[in-house]
Amino acid sequence: MSNQTKTVISAAVNSQRFNHFITALIIFNSILIGLETYPSIYLPNKNVFFILDLIILFIFTIEIILKIFVDGKHFFKNGWNIFDFSIIAGSIILYNTPFVGVLRIFRVLRALRTITSVPSLRRIVSALFMAIPTIGSVILLMFIIFYVYAVIGTAFFSEIEPEYFGSLELTFITLFQIFTLESWASGVFRPIFAEIQWSWLYFVSFIIIATFIMINLIVGEIVNNAQKISEEVEKDTSEIKDDTVEIKELRKEVKELKDLLKQHVLKGE
């Protein structure tokens, strides 16, 4: 295949229209998978769903093949491309096998391909992955806080509320419920507060430290990483814009040189 043909295919695959088409197809496929959970809709139209799924899988396969053809070995150097390839390859390999449950997982995972086709979503997920080391440290700190409060809670409240604080394991579960702010006041706090007046210090301090401060640390780290990625993208974009301006100026200078040469030639004649 000639270089010209490869250039045409590359331009088509990397065009906005093609990306928008794939994104729309991913969304349509996700809606179909959701509709399959309704027996009243799925069972009467089972053959239609099957044919549409085959067509969508065929288009996705062609997309991956074209991208591999255009990018060559560089295709597998991109983590998002490997993610797309794994989902489509898994869907094809498991299509005519008895592993229906695993196949359904791969079909549902196709919806996640929306992340790869929308740049803003890719930046958010990349920021999340960049924040993993810091999040790991925060989670370790949260575990220490949970452990300290679990020991205190079990020691002081086990006799009053054995259902919630009867053992260290139950206290951990109770603290997680309090951490999510789910019915902690009426279900857990008030019966203990009726017996021990100072217990509000235990619950309020835990909520402030674990829920508000720790969650804000995680969110703040993700936001900082997202800002870094946005700045890098903006920097790359500005460099491209500068290059475009330089190219325009060069074209202008070349045009002026051509005009000067023409005038010189005409004078010589």
TrEMBL record:
Residue ranges annotated for the Ion transport domain, each copy included: 16-232
Entries under SUPFAM superfamilies matching the protein: Voltage-gated potassium channels (SSF81324)
Residue stretches spanning the membrane: 20-38, 50-70, 82-106, 127-152, 200-219
Membrane disposition: Multi-pass membrane protein
Name under which the protein is recorded: Voltage-gated sodium channel
InterPro entries referenced in this protein's UniProt entry, alphabetically: Ion_trans_dom, VGCC_Ca_Na, Volt_channel_dom_sf
GO cellular component, one term: voltage-gated sodium channel complex
Molecular function terms from GO: voltage-gated sodium channel activity
Keyword field contains Transmembrane: yes
Native source species: Litchfieldia salsa
One Pfam family it belongs to: Ion_trans
Chain coiled-coil ranges: 233-267
Subcellular location: Membrane
Keywords: Coiled coil, Ion channel, Ion transport, Membrane, Transmembrane, Transmembrane helix, Transport
Keyword Transport: yes
